[in-house]
Specification:
This protein is of the alpha+beta class and 274 residues long. The protein folds into two domains: 129 residues, MutM-like, N-terminal (N-terminal domain of MutM-like DNA repair proteins), CATH 3.20.190.10; 124 residues, Helicase, Ruva Protein, domain 3 (Orthogonal Bundle), CATH 1.10.8. The chain is built from seven helices and ten strands. α4 crosses α7 and α6 crosses α7.
Length: 274
Amino acid sequence: MPELPEVEVCRRGLQPEVEGQRILSAVVRSPRLRLPLSATLGETLAGQQVVAVRRRGKYLLLHCHGGIEDGCLIIHLGMSGNLRFVPHGTAPEKHDHVDLVFAGQILRFADPRRFGVVHWQAAGEAPHALLAVLGIEPLADEFTGDWLFEATRRRAGPIKPLLMDSHLVVGIGNIYAAESLFRAGISPLRAAKRISRERYGRLVPAIRQTLADAIAAGGSSIRDYVHSDGGAGCFQVECAVYDRAGEPCRRCAGVVRQVRQGGRSTFYCPACQH
């Protein structure tokens, strides 16, 4: 699933291409995604000018005005979705569900597993339920070691699944949680409430730097994620522990171990992480 770095890379790719541009028309080929697409979505989007491309967690937000009503197009890439630009006249492929037609090109949404979201939110409405439940942004100034320490005082579970809980903090994901904990020297098995304020003071900068490094690398292309220009991310080749079970630790003489947590694989170095 695309996580915060992949979605932020996508946002930065879309921004110079669509901000200030007008959607001439929208084509909906299949209304069956995680949320059913509105039957009037094409009519609503026609004539809208995209005034800003923002991100909240793993959601892309295309703020629009100038159509029949102002609002925001909420997009989530799901497990395997992508947005890519194609020239006019490009025939759709099997899993291409939505087109936003601009004057110079088409922005095409594909989603083989149909877990994605393309939803219109009219201006003035209460925040959509998908966004209202989201936790703090890990790149926001408010996300500090002190904040994370206080937020975990009653959390007896291990720290890694907690970092992946979008109700607490958004967009970190499996690969980035593992790499951040390695950089901070914290075991993914350690109970969140047993981690000191000082160690959280090291973990938060590690999370920020890991996400920043991933964004700079174009994200991670573990399976089929690609950018809006068709390129792939390469952060996964830099990983210190993720997907390296049985290999030597790049920091010490230990061996990277793999365990299961919450149905997900966790990679860490028992010698380096306590």
